Amino acid sequence: MAVSVGMKAGARLARPWLRLLSTRTLGTRAAPTHKPVLPFEAIPQCPGNRWLRLLQIWRDQGHENRHLDVHRLFQTLGPIFRGILGWVVRGWAPRQSPALSLGMRCAQVVFPLVMTLFELARNPAVQRALRQESLAAAASITEDPYKAISELPLLRAAIKETLRLYPIGVTLERVLHSDVVLQNYHVPAGTVVQFFLYSMGRSQAVFVRPERYNPQRWLDSRLRFSHLAFGFGVRQCLGRRLAELEMVLLLHHVLKSFQVETLQQEDVTMTFCFLLKPVSPPLLTFRPVASPSSL
């Protein structure tokens, strides 16, 4: 009873664009109607509310109804949140932030794993090379799983290659602390600069034959800074090392034991739903590998 009351209270206190999700989670029959938007003056005045500060700036610039546009945008994005991260979004309370972090980390691991296995199934020569590397390092990794990062450079390169073609997040943003000249354009300090990872990963100006799945390209140290799927610098993804270790270990054990195959040779159609993901997962077949001598 106490849990039910607490969940209902949380649903009522949630942001307008999350109330419908929370009440549906409780099993109620809430109609999918848009919630009314409070006028700016009625929004709770919280000193730490950054959105409130942004709305005030917009009002000072003459955009008094901009918060209505923002609310309509969140209503449009509602199905995306419900489909991808809705089950972990509950008003962004500090006590629930670990659940949100876990949900983001799961998404960062699952989709790259699926697409890596698909590309290895389409490229059997690459898969054989990775299997040989995994078998050679099996004893060392069994003794110390953390050695997978150093003992499997080609497998780590394959993950980078997957994230080049199928980045989870399509953009990165940084705010310039000083003036910069980019391709003869003067960009002043304070400007928000965006990196479009999907476009960069498929650009011939950055990668040779970008349409080809070629993990060996990442063994060249000159491309080290071209891998930006997890961000870079002090503000890179906090779960990067854990996500990389999870992917390396899982692929290591799968490749040791199974031959991955697919009948699908055409590219997988991707869609953007807050994260980049396949419209429908590729169909894969896992055939047991008898022994190293049979490879």
Poorly predicted residue ranges: 1-32, 81-97
**General shape:** elongated
**From the helix content, strand content and strand pairing, which structural class follows?**
mainly alpha
Helix residue percentage: 40-55%
Widest sheet, order of strands: 1-4
Instruction: Please identify, by name, the CATH architecture of the largest domain.
Output: Orthogonal Bundle
CATH superfamily of the largest domain: Cytochrome P450
Give me the strand/helix succession. Answer: HHHHHHHHHEEEEHHEEEE
Q: Give Rg in angstroms.
A: 23 Å
**Number of H/I helices:** 11
Q: Do you know the CATH topology of the largest domain? A: Cytochrome p450
Strand segment tally: 8
Provide the β-strand percentage band.
Answer: 5-15%
CATH secondary-structure class of the largest domain? Mainly Alpha
What does the average pLDDT come to?
76
Distance between the termini: 59 Å
In terms of topology, how is this protein built?
Elements: H1 2-13, H2 16-25, H3 50-60, H4 66-85, H5 97-122, H6 124-136, H7 138-143, H8 148-151, H9 153-165, E1 171-175, E2 180-182, E3 185-187, E4 192-196, H10 197-201, H11 240-257, E5 258-261, E6 270-273, E7 275-278, E8 285-288
Helix pairs in contact: 1-2, 2-4, 5-9, 5-11, 6-11
Which structural traits does this protein have?
295 residues; mainly alpha; 2 domains; two-stranded antiparallel ribbon; 11 helices; 8 strands; elongated; steroid 11-beta-monooxygenase activity; steroid 11beta-monooxygenase; CYP11_CYP27_families; metal-binding; heme binding
